[in-house]
Predict the 3D structure of the following.
Amino acid sequence: RVNAAIEILNLRPVDSGGKMVTVPKIPDFLAIYGADLDAFGHTEGAEGPNLGPLLAELDRQLGRLVQATKDVGIYEQTAFLLTSDHGMTTWHRSLTERLATMTVLGRHPEIVPPGRPPSPEAEIIVVTAGRIADVTLRGRAATSQGREDVRTVLEGLPHVSRVLDAANLNALHASDKLGDFVLEAKVPWGFGPPEEEVLRGGHGSTLEMRVPLLIAGAGVRADSVPRGAGLVDVAPTIAALLGARPPADAQGRALGELLSV
């Protein structure tokens, strides 16, 4: 992807969905996403042997990108922002089978693989996702008493570190597509196929929320430190650097304490 970005900066053609396209001018904003680190992290865990060398290679590619801005004459007018969407935690023991055998309101929950609809009669629907499990309630389970009963049982499950409800999720700016509760597993547990002792990496819990944020260059105050920055602040901050309004649905703020624009 860095190769394509460098070609774009040099106004050379790049493949866009099978069609060669040349931009008419150097873009005001250019985003580059690297998925390799995430892929290796899921396969090997957060301490996998390939992650160190891959980080070094990503650093080298970042250096190439910075040099490219110098080569095309925009370095002094360019701001650089580097961050990640999540961290990674190694896990190797599954809570899925224990979750499937718990009893609430006289029934077991239905564990539903991602992309498959639950059965019509299911009242407690669980979708597992590595370090978390998403729980949606229907029927009797969705009543005030049912919700309280379900939460009590969930909080009593061994190796579950947190049970997040709607208020917790809203405070975290979580997706509105999540269900009534989200379960977080204690390390080294997770939610997934029961492949005991197979090291895997996962994310989605609050344990993986801390990520790096590096910002430097044009319009950025040297040696500045952000106050309570979060990922929801990235888009408004980029908009401020571009002299544009933030996205209409942005939940964060521009990190003005970092900027000189």
